[in-house]
Write a structure and sequence with these properties.
mainly alpha, Four Helix Bundle (Hemerythrin (Met), subunit A), 2 domains, two-stranded antiparallel sheet
Length: 244
């Protein structure tokens, strides 16, 4: 471990728990710790960082809230699977007009996800493609059994993002995740058949290493989502009930 990591914390900066959390975060990065690694004990960290165990507890709490650490009951404190990533980092859930938000997200997705699909076709490994095929099958299974397919739909789009092997794309995943979940909830069952068709087109293009085809298939998929949302907003504006 680097000696500089464990220098006495400068008490002139922010709060002590905040500085302690920062030091623990540096330890995670510098030691390349992953979700398989358990964080050192409170006693060990207190000795290393020259602070009290109470301060270590407060620092750990801050990192748990930021999804950097997770407490596994009966096992201890571990590094989170995706450190620092939270489900709704931009606070989308608190927007009062979710229909307007869905349309704005569709606009962002129409610029972002076709490129992601293109990159997936160019960079996916065979293991990535197997995972993507499995994800697509799970979505179809949920739809055909008339189960809520929101979670599996999200997984399919997240797996496409992971196929890019781009370090920045995973940071966009919370936006994709919220958008897909919101689209499914707002369109209800009206998008089920299109979802299967759209996903198959995207899957076939990516697995066929057809970068342009994957880009176009994803663009069509998102445009169909947006059209259906606009149709729903039009019905609400006209005061009529949406079709079952």
């Amino acid at each position: 471990m680097k000696e500089s990591l464990f220098e006495t914390i400068n008490t002139k900066q922010t709060t002590l728990p905040e500085r302690t959390a920062e030091q623990i975060s540096r330890l995670i990065v510098e030691q390349h710790l992953t979700s398989a690694d358990k964080l050192p004990s409170e006693f060990e960290l207190a000795e290393l960082l020259h602070v009290g165990r109470g301060t270590i507890r407060e620092g750990v709490k801050l990192l748990v809230a930021r999804n950097v650490l997770e407490i596994r009951r009966g096992k201890g404190t571990y590094i989170a699977s995706n450190p620092g990533e939270i489900s709704d980092p931009l606070g989308f859930a608190y927007y009062p007009d979710q229909l307007r938000l869905a349309l704005d997200l569709a606009e962002i997705r129409s610029q972002m996800e076709p490129w992601v699909a293109r990159m997936a076709a160019e960079h996916a490994s065979e293991e990535d493609l197997e995972r993507l095929r499995a994800s697509c099958a799970v979505v179809e299974g949920d739809i055909l059994r008339e189960r809520n397919h929101s979670e599996s739909d999200v997984r399919f789009h997240v797996d496409i993002a992971k196929c890019t092997h781009n370090l920045v794309v995973p940071k966009l995943i919370p936006i994709i995740t919220y958008a897909v979940t919101l689209f499914v909830s707002l369109t209800e069952s009206r998008l089920r058949a299109e979802t299967m068709t759209g996903h198959r087109e995207i899957l076939e293009a990516i697995c066929g290493r057809d970068a342009l085809g994957a880009e176009k298939a994803m663009a069509r998929h998102i445009e169909r989502n947006r059209a259906l949302l606009q149709e729903g907003i039009g019905r609400l504006a006209g005061g009529s009930e949406p079709a079952p």
